[in-house]
Fold these 2 entries.
Entry 1:
Amino acid sequence: MRIATLMSYTAGFKQATEEIVELEKAGLDIAFVPEAYSFDAPTAMGYLAAKTSTVTIASGIIPIYTRTPTLLAMTAAGLDDLSDGRAMLGIGAGGPQVMEGFHGVPFNAPTARLKEIIEVCRKVWKREEKLVHDGKNYQIPLQQDKGTGLGIPLKLINHPLRNDIPITIASLGQKSVELTAEAADGWLPAFYIASQAHNVWGEALARGRAKRDPNRAPLEIFSGGGVGIGEGLEHLRDMGRPQTALYVGGMGARGKNYYNDIFRMAGYEKEAAEIQDLYLSGKKQEAEAAIPKNFLDKTSLIGPEGFVRDQLAEMKESGVTSLNVGFVGSNIKERISQCEKLRNIVDNL
C-alpha cells in the first residue's frame, strides 16, 4: 500500500511544503495538493516539486470546469517534467456551489466531460499527431462557425517526459465511478466504508472494469482516514466530526448533495437526513454531534496498533490498494511520528 496525504493549505503552502518534505523522509509516497477555492494547486505543486525528491505530486483535485482539457494536459506534463516523472493528475467535477458560485461557469455533464478530458490528455501527451477532438462538450480545434474560424490543429511543442501520466478521479456517483474504473488510473472516493463499499459502488466498479483496457494497470483505490496509532487515542476520532458534518450536511442543497447520498447508501439514511436538517438550519454543532460514532470508528485509523492493523486488513480485503490519510498531532514532530508508525505497519502487513 502506498501512503498519501492531503497537503494542508490553512497555514499557507510554504509551511505545508516544509511538512511534506519531512513526511517524505518518514515514508510518505504521495502528496495530494488541494485547490477548492483557495490558492490554485499547480503553483504549489511546482514549488513542492523543487523541494522534494521521491514523493508523487498529485492535484487533489483540480475541478474540471476551471480549465480546458488541453490546459490540464499541459499542466500535468509540465509538472511531470519538473519533478522527473513524479506527477499525477487528480481531477473531479467539484460541485455547483463552487463552480457556479466562485468560477461563474455552468455545472453540467460531469461524467461526459471527464471522459473527454481523459481522451484529450492522453492524446496531448502521446504527441502522435496534431490534436483533434470532436466531442459533445469539447471540440478541438473549435468549430469554425463558433469562433473566428482561424483555429488550426496543433501538438504540444515539448516532448513530455512520460506519454501516459497517471490520472486519478474523485468520483461518487454510479456513472462517474463506472467511468473511473474503466478509464482512470486511480480513484478517490469519499466516505468509503470497507464493509459497505461493495453495496455502494460494487456494480459500478464491475461495469467499468469490464470495459477497461487490459493493457492498463489495475485501478488504484485510495481510502484511509485520520491516523493516530497508540493507546488511549480513540477520542481523537471525533476530530472528523466537523468535516463530515460540512460535507454530509452543508455541501450542496437539499436533494442535491452527493456526499449526503453516499452517506445514505452506506447505511445511514436516517442520520443523513438529520445531519442535513441541522446543518442547513444553522445548527452546526448539533449536526456534528449527530454523526454516528460507529461511522467515525469504521473510517478511522486512530487507536491501538492492533485496531489499525485490523482496519487496514479490512480495507485491503474490500479492494483498497493505497491509503489517503491525515496524521493527527499538535505539531509537525507528532505527525511525522504517526507517519513513521503507519509506514512500519503497512510494510509488515
Entry 2:
Amino acid sequence: MVISLDLLVNAIVAGILLGGFYAAVSVGITISFGMLDIANIAQPAFILLGSYAAYIVTSYVRIDPILVGFVMTPVFYVIGMVTYRLYYYAFESRGEQAIQGLAFFFGLLFVAEVSLVLIFGVDYRFVEAPYIGPTLHLGPIDLAFRTLVPFVISLLMVGALQLFLSKTYIGRAILAVSQDSLALRLMSIRPYRVKLIAFGISIATASLAGAFLIIIQPVEPSIGRDYIGRIFAIVVLGGLGSFPGMILAAFLLGVAESLTATFYGPSWSPAVAFGLLLLTLAFRPAGILGRRA
C-alpha cells in the first residue's frame, strides 16, 4: 500500500487536534479517578448534558456554544457537588465505594441517557458557529477550525487547572487528599470538603467538553458510551493524577485513532483506546508519567 505523505501528515495533525479535545474530555476523570479514587464512569453523561445545554441555549439565543459552556460551568459545579454528596453519604462514608459506587455511577449514566432519549429522541443535534466549517490551509496541511478552536481552549483550560492545583491552597489540598488524608485532618482540613470541591470541579469541566463535542460532531444520547473507554485509557496511560501525562496520552490516542481511521477505516478506531489501555496495563501500569511503585 502506497501512503501519500500529505495524507499521512494531515492524519497526524488531525490526530493532535483531536487529542486536545480528548484532553478536555479526560481532565474531569483525571481529577475524580486519578486524585480522588472515584471511578466516575458517568462522566461522559455529564459531558453529553453539556452538549445538550449548548444546543438548547444556542437554539434560542444566537451566542457562541463555547461561551455557553463557560457560562454553564457554575451550574455543573453545583451538580457535581450534589452528586458527590449523594455518593459520599450512600457509599463512601460506609466504606462501600467499590462495586456499589461503580453501580451508582453506571445508574447515573443510564438515567441520563434514557432521559435525553425521552426528551430529545434519537435524532442527531448540532449547533452553528462561524468557525464550524471553515478550514485553515497551511501548504499541504489542513486545519479545521471546528477542531482547532477546541484544541486551543482545551489546553488553556488544562493549563489553568494545573496552575490552580499547584499554586493555590485548595489546589494543593486536592493533590494531597488521596495521598495523605490523615495529614489533612491534622491540619484541621476535612477530606470530605476537599473532595466535594474537587468533584465539583471535575464535573464543571464537562460543560466545556460537552460544548467542544457538539462543535466537533453532531450528538445523540447514546454517543457518551463511546467515550468511557477512551477517557479511562487516557487517564491510565498518562499516569493517574498527572495532567502532563494525560495530555500526552490524549495526543497519542488522538493520533493513533486518526491514523487508524485514515488508513484502515473509522470502524477500527474505537478498538485503539482499549488496545492502548491493555498494553499500558501490561507493560507500564503506572502510566507514561505515573510514579513507579
